[in-house]
Amino acid sequence: MKIEPRNQLWKEVGVRIVFPAIVFLGLYVLAMFYFILPTMRENLLARKKEMIKELVQAGWSTILVNYQEEQSGEFTRAEAQRRAIRRLRLMRYGEDLKDYFWVNDIQGHMVMHPHLPEMEGQDMIDFVDPAGVRIFVQFAQIAEQHGAGYMEYMWQWKDDPQRVAPKLSYVKLFEPWNWVLGTGVYTEDVDAEIAALTWQLTIVALAILAAAIVSVSFIIGHGIRTGRLRRLAEESLDLERDFSQRLIDNAQAIILVLDPQCMVITCNKYTETLTGYSLEELKGKSWLEAFIPADQRTDIQDAFAKTLAGEHTHGNINPIVVRDGREVFVEWYDDELRDASGNIFGILAIGRDVTARLQSERERRQLQEQLHQAQKMEAVGQLASGIAHDFSNLLMVVMGNLTNLKRQLADNEPAQRELDMMAEAVEQASGITKSLLTFSRKLPAEMKPLPIAEIVETSARMLHRLLPTAIDLRVEINDQARSLQIKGDSTQLQQVILNLALNARDAMPQGGLLRIAAAPRPLPRDSVGVATENQVAGVQIAVSDTGSGMSPEVLERIYEPFYSTKPRGQGTGLGLAIVLGIVQNHGGHITVESEMGRGTCFKVWLPVPRPEDMDPVFLADRKITVGRGQRLLLAEDHPYIRQIMATTLEAEGYRVASVGDGAALMRYYKAHMENIDLLVVDIDLPERTGLDCLREMRAGGFDRPVIVITGSGDLDAEEQLDEYSLLLRKPFQMADLTRLAGNLLQQTQHKEVEP
Known about the structure:
By secondary structure, this protein is an alpha+beta fold. It folds into four domains: 1-246, Beta-Lactamase (2-Layer Sandwich), CATH 3.30.450.20; 253-353, 2-Layer Sandwich (Beta-Lactamase), CATH 3.30.450.20; 448-614, Histidine kinase-like ATPase, C-terminal domain (Heat Shock Protein 90, 2-Layer Sandwich); 631-753, 3-Layer(aba) Sandwich (Rossmann fold). Strands 2-1-5-4-3 form a five-stranded antiparallel sheet, with helices on both faces. α1 runs antiparallel to α2 (77-90), α10 crosses α17 and α12 packs across α14. The model is unreliable at 616-624 and 750-755 (pLDDT under 50).
């Protein structure tokens, strides 16, 4: 009889104290290792990242001060940079002041490193960390592509060359000097802090467990059976439950208790915040019907059934629809809940919001698709460049023969009209060739004076063939605008108008009004390249439609490369990005106004240069200067083009000797170097290139003017020419060749007679 109360005490203690203590400890450990510590590590790492970002901004501001001293003329660039380096070298932080800043340039050269001064001035392109990462190449790429960013890699531990540790750095581009400024923190510091915190939390858990054990031992040992013992035990349990509830409520994760029918029994505060419902509203509500999309409820029911059967289901991801209609993706960790008898009475569901992670993964896949698209476009561009090169040679033959026919049939007016029509068609084909080269990025902008009216009207003529009859095209050119000239590339500017007009066409599938207007307008004060205190004269081209319009969300992204609202296969997403680039390269400005259902209006401003700012080469007399027997050496590998050019030049009064390859050019030059007044040479000669021959001739003392011809669209060809050489791109009119030859010979003659 005496044993029964003791057995009853053990049973009561086990049910009312030991079991809750074990459950609490289990929840504590689960919350600590699955959510609290990972969340605290993420927060700590985020603070570290924000710290180094702010430090880099402070260092960047230091460089900016020295740059402003340079701009004010107080110091030269070299002195300003030395002052900046001295300041940055002395800037240290951290507990032992061993954390530092470094500077490299975008070409990968080390500019300044406090711990490794032997690296300064060295090319760090091939420098790799133990994992094979080309650190300084990636620094430069991050700075060039994004302006600033983070990067993880392996690096020497502070000033200890024998130790290498993982490091997280933030770099930022200082564009005026092409410097990349950076600093970083060692992630081992973060791990050390988390380890210390883990140890502290473990001690707390063990202390709580020890306290529970001591309490139980004390109760059993002294046989306290009074109400005071029960009250103390209940208070202890209340404290534990309160602590456990606080821990659960503060966890940055969904914590749900569901009954076997998936009805909500209880949840934590985070669940209330995320779903938008209070606990009172959630209690007794079916989790499946309230939050799970209908097409996924069967899968979730199957997962819950497995959990109720004793299987652990971890890592499942599914969306839930919260109160405001948003879809939030949650990764779940489900376990069954058992009572004291071991019977399953519910489900403990713990979920983490992974919406941002999934969005990041989607964006990464989109970037990979965009890269693939860019690679395909590069291949198409290379094909277009090759076609344009061959096509330009064919056009040269046609152009040359048309010029000769017009000369021979000067008195035949009907023939002249037909030849003019053919010449216009060839000129349009020439524009197509230049467009192909521009598309393949192998033809730079050909900046020259252009009447704005001619650009608009030429574009309108091309549009007439591309617009359906349901669209009414109106062209309005202000009388003042007709007298204005801008300095630009006609092909690229026509591309701007055509791109905007074709987008307007696509916005009006049922027809409407497309209006292209040109009028004098000063550039906006905040536009690219315009000082705030002065207005710059300009002309405005407005392209407007009465189509469907664009939403504010679309307007925010229209200039993003690869962004398109058109169906797949009907747009590259590059049109407006190219338009923006062309306008900015011309020193211009572009704006857009749009309203859903009302239409869209793009306005393009282009600067109108003052006459004194025009290139004198472009303002030269457009009359063809007739030759007076000057001796020209012509080097062109295409036999038809060579023959036409020679015939045209001879008809203008020049004496022409022609060769077909680089070796023949050098043989003729060495035999007749004193009898050459002007050299006309193609870059792409067989055996030896034209530029190679020209360099050897210049080195040998040849100082006559040179016209260098190219049909390949080499971007760096013009940079390799001297002051006595000019570049002429195929296809060109024979009149352009004779005019350029006459101007060069006249300029050379004037220089020779100057005192």
